[in-house]
Amino acid sequence: MKTRVTAGDETKHVGSTSWRAALVDRQNEQWLRLREHGEQRRQHLSERATGVLADAIQWLAELPEHSIHAVVTDPPYGIVEYETKNHVKLRAGRGGVWRIPPSFDGAKRQPLPRFTVLSQEEISALYNFFGALAYGLNRALVPGGHVFLASNPLLSTMTFHAFQRAGFEKRGELIRLVQTLRGGDRPKGAEREFSEVSMMARSCWEPWGIFRKPFKGTAADNLRTWGTGGLRRISDDEPFKDVITCSPTRGVERQIAPHPSLKPQRFLRQVVRAALPLGIGIVYDPFAGSHSTLAAADRLGYLSIGTERDAKYFALGCKAFARLRALDARS
């Protein structure tokens, strides 16, 4: 017996029309096919969420066109930090390209990738990687589908350009105001001699690129046909805004999902909600990690699917999903 999934819990059905009903029907048909697509190992986390153990670019290459409606993802900012040799060092607490900050003030800081050490060869590989990802997403998304892509001030120009070169329209940037330990350090080994010097500005913000797959015709026509093209408003009186203040993930949430790049539910739920303007469609996270994006989507009543190629993180995400979804994440 087929399970029929309705649109997001918050979807307004004021003046419901035949085109809206058709969108929901198409969504349900796509969902039944998509969550079983491919031969890779998968975990159906709920009726509305599925995680797949797979490489994102390979999985996208095998996906039919127009299969997904929005993307919200926090990718590996530099491919080098997730290479096996550096990830082994991270898990062993020895760093490699990862900087293991010291504990102070009774708090243990999370590791951070040192993107300033990337070689020209690694930077070229990074650009090519994001280009391949962008081409795959451009084919898989429906016309008007949005991509929210996390980055950082050191690499955002390059990664965002790769998406524009692949044919996406840049629709702005979402700025997450968050103070991390990135930057602000004195010269290593000469901290006292140059106590008045910082090698970089302390990072207090995180850029998320906002991209849209082009569409033909009017925005209203595309919304009726595909359910995409715009961003969901916060309320009738308030649009979605491009600045969100949100502190780093801490406490119980990090205990639930100890992933080095975990984003808080109170932030993700705002972004994921905006990604489907009518609350109808399927959200995809190519780098699902802790499955936090899927948990945010499920909490909103959205359908979502995520791929993760690291077996340990995939297992972590499957275990953490329900508890992340259940969190009271009011900002």
From TrEMBL:
Annotated SUPFAM superfamilies: S-adenosyl-L-methionine-dependent methyltransferases
Enzyme class, spelled out: transferase
Cross-referenced Pfam families: N6_N4_Mtase (PF01555)
Domain DNA methylase N-4/N-6: 68-315
Domain of life: Bacteria
InterPro entries: DNA_methylase_N4/N6 (IPR002941), DNA_methylase_N6_adenine_CS (IPR002052), RM_Methyltransferase (IPR001091), SAM-dependent_MTases_sf (IPR029063)
Keyword set, alphabetical order: Methyltransferase, Transferase
EC number(s) on file: 2.1.1.-
UniProt record similarity statement: Belongs to the N(4)/N(6)-methyltransferase family.
The name this protein goes by in its record: Methyltransferase
Taxonomic lineage: Bacteria, Pseudomonadati, Pseudomonadota, Gammaproteobacteria, Steroidobacterales
